[in-house]
Every structure is written in C-alpha cells, then in structure tokens.
C-alpha cells in the first residue's frame, strides 16, 4: 500500500472507531428502575374503650362436699354421676329404720310428759281451791306448783328430743345442698357411713355463674380505682368505699385458649383488700353468667381477660400489618407529599380485630404503608396506591 492509499485509509478507520465508541456509550447509559408499588391507607377513626389484658383462672361460685351426717348403712343412690342436680334433689338414702324408732320413742315420751303435766295442773287447781279453805297446807300447795313446773319443763325437754330425732331422721335423706354438676359417688351402696366421721359421699359444683380471678399491678390498680370513683360519682353521691364493685358495671371480657378474641362478657365484682407485697399485685374477680348450653366455662381453666378502664373516646387505628419494631421501638412507614418514605416512631395501644390503636405518632391525614413494606426504605421514592378495603 503506497503512501497515498494509507493517507486515505487511516481517516476511515478512525471514523469507524469513533462511531463504534459512540454506540457503546449509548448502550451503557443507566436507566433508574420504576418506583416500587406500595399500598397505603389513612388511619381509621373509631370510638374505642381502653382495656387492660390479663391472664387468670376460672373458679366455681360454690363447691360443696356432700357428707353423711348420721351413721348407718347406705341403702340407695338416686343420681347419675356427672349430671346436673337441683338444690333439694334426693341423692342418697341411709337406712332410716333406727332413726324412725328413736323418733317414735321420743314422741311417746313427749306424750307421757304431756299427760304428767295435765295431771299436775289438775292437782294444782284442786289444791288452789282447798288451800283457801284451810284443807290443804301452804307447803303442799307449793309442792304441787313445783310438780306442775317440772312437768312443763319435761315437755320442753321431750319436745326438743322429738325435734332432734326428726332432724336425725331427715339426715337419712341426703339431698343436694346447691344446684350444680354432681361428681361420682365415693361410697358404694351397702357400706356403713358416718361411723365416727362425716363420710364424704360426693361433691356438687356450681358454675352458673362462674368466677374468674386475675391480678392487677399497682400502676394499673390506681387507674382502675380512679375509674371506680368517677363512675360512682356520676351515678350517685354515695361514698365509693361503701358501694360493691358489681354496682359499677365495669365490663370484663374472657377468652379461652382455643377461642379467638374475648367472646364471654362478664362484670368486675370484687377486689382484694390489699396489695400482695411479695408480688406487687392485687387479686381481682369477675363474674360471668356462663349460661351457654352446653356449659363452656369450667372451674380451673386458664383464661385471657380484658378489663375496660375508661370511657369511650375517639382514636386512630391502623392495620396490624403496618406495624413494625426495632431497637428504637414501634414504628410505621409513611409516604409524604413527594412520595418519599418516612419512618415514624409511634406509641401503640390495644389491638382490636386486626387493627391496632396508635396513641401517638400519626395524624388522620398520614398515608401509612400497609402492604409492600419490604420494598420501602426510609428516604426512597415509592408509588403509593390507596387501599380500597382493610383486607
């Protein structure tokens, strides 16, 4: 290739390389990805009542041990274990024959004492007529008055013995002292009971209504006490310390381990007289009607309880999915007017049906991210889409 050819070829090669480099530079230009989609929602305005939540246990209103009050052979049983019995239902029969005989003897002695009194009164009447005429001495008349008084005392004694025999006979009919569910029989028919001790025959448990016991710490106790005073002052001018807790009408809600939420509604009705210094808590009690059929609440169950401690007031709630936490505490991610994500520390309250009360940290106009949290970072730009439902 001569010099002239080289001089013509070189500019062509340089031009081609320039075009090639220019094309490569255009292909390597950075294109920012689109802003991620997130779902936002405004806080929900709702009137709520503030609650405290506890764990506790259920306990029967009444539990009675049915024992033999007299000695004798157990003749019969009149119930099926595990069923409901009513107060006064016949449960057992202890051999009544010895007690019938004792009652008959006591009644005979009473009849004899009545006859003795009648005789003594007749003699005293005759003596009263004769003593005025001098036919009977004063001492004889006094003796007959004493005999009449002794006969009256004997009637009182024999009457008491008859009453005692009747009571003893009635004890041979062992009846349910309360209404409730009866346990098994602890003694079989045919055995001797009540000999030297009040033999345990069975038990009856009443749990309609039923109690639930739980413990309140000192800080929350002061809040409840203040609510008690405010409630009583609204209803009456009476001294709060002279009104039973059940008069306050403070609602308590209960849920069992296999139940969602707190489906059972009751009333706070008792607080222990002082704080247990070893635990720093006070024992409280609520009562529940327990009128479901079949019965749902049994004594000894572990329970979750919720106690209302305030009057209804407006609050802001947000979906629980939006709430997150780290070392700084609970926070929400919000979208501002520039569609940038902001981290906002919040103070939370109670949880209600998938929503959580936000006490501090957000306003009613704030757009809170409820879906797509993993795509949102504080300071980043997002594409907010408003939620149509709180799903």
CATH fold field value of the largest domain: OB fold (Dihydrolipoamide Acetyltransferase, E2P)
Based on Cα principal axes, name the global outline: elongated
H/E series: HEEEEEEHHEEEEHEEEEEEEEEEEE
- Computed over alpha carbons, the radius of gyration is 44 Å
Sheet bearing the most strands, described? 6 strands, mixed
Number of helices, where a helix is a run of at least 4 consecutive DSSP H or I residues: 4
Question: Overview of this structure, please?
Answer:
- Helices cover 28% and strands 35% of the residues.
- The chain starts with a helix and ends in a 5-residue tail after the last strand.
- With 391 residues, it is α+β, with helices and mostly antiparallel strands.
Can you give keywords for this protein?
single chain; 391 residues; alpha+beta; conserved putative lor/sdh protein from methanococcus maripaludis s2 fold; Elongation Factor Tu (Ef-tu), domain 3; OB fold (Dihydrolipoamide Acetyltransferase, E2P); six-stranded mixed β-sheet; six-stranded antiparallel β-barrel; 4 helices; 22 strands
Topology:
Elements: H1 3-27, E1 37-41, E2 44-48, E3 51-67, E4 72-77, E5 84-85, E6 90-94, H2 97-131, H3 138-170, E7 173-175, E8 180-182, E9 192-193, E10 200-217, H4 218-235, E11 251-256, E12 264-271, E13 281-288, E14 302-308, E15 313-319, E16 324-326, E17 329-335, E18 341-345, E19 347-352, E20 355-360, E21 367-371, E22 383-386
Parallel strand pairs: 1-22
Antiparallel strand pairs: 1-21, 2-15, 3-10, 3-14, 4-6, 4-9, 5-8, 6-7, 8-10, 10-13, 11-12, 11-14, 12-13, 15-20, 16-17, 17-18, 17-21, 19-20
Helix pairs in contact: 2-3
């Amino acid at each position: 290739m001569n010099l002239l050819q080289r001089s013509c070829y070189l500019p062509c090669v340089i031009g081609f390389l320039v075009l090639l480099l220019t094309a490569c530079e255009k292909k390597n230009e950075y294109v920012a990805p689109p802003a991620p989609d997130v779902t936002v929602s405004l806080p929900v305005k709702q009137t709520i009542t503030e609650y405290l939540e506890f764990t506790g246990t259920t306990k029967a209103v009444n539990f009675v041990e049915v024992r033999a009050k007299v000695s004798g052979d157990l003749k019969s049983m009149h119930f099926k274990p595990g069923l409901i019995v009513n107060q006064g239902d016949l449960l057992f029969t202890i051999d009544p024959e010895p007690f019938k005989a004792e009652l008959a003897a006591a009644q005979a002695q009473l009849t004899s004492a009545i006859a003795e009194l009648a005789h003594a009164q007749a003699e005293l009447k005759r003596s009263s007529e004769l003593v005025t005429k001098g036919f009977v001495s004063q001492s004889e008349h006094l003796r007959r008055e004493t005999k009449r008084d002794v006969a009256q005392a004997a009637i009182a004694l024999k009457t008491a013995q008859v009453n005692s025999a009747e009571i003893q006979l009635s004890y041979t009919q062992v009846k349910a002292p309360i209404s409730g569910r009866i346990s098994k029989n602890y003694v079989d028919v045919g055995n001797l009971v009540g000999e030297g001790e009040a033999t345990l025959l069975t038990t009856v448990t009443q749990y309609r209504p039923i109690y639930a016991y739980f413990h309140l710490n000192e800080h929350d106790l002061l809040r409840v006490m203040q609510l008690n005073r405010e409630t009583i002052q609204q209803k009456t001018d009476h001294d709060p310390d002279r009104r039973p807790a059940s008069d306050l009408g403070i609602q308590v809600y209960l849920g069992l381990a296999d139940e969602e939420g707190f489906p059972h509604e009751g009333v706070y009705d008792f607080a222990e007289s002082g704080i247990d210094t070893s635990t720093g808590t006070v024992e409280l009690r609520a009562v529940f009607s327990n009128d479901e059929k079949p019965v749902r609440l049994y004594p000894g169950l572990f329970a979750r309880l919720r106690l209302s401690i305030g009057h209804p007031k407006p609050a802001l709630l947000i979906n629980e999915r939006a709430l997150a936490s780290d070392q700084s505490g609970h926070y929400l991610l919000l979208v501002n007017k520039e569609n940038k994500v902001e981290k906002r520390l919040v103070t939370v309250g109670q949880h209600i049906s998938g929503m959580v009360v936000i006490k501090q940290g957000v306003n009613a106009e704030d757009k809170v991210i409820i879906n797509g949290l993993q795509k949102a970072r504080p300071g980043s730009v997002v594409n907010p889409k408003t939620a149509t439902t709180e799903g």
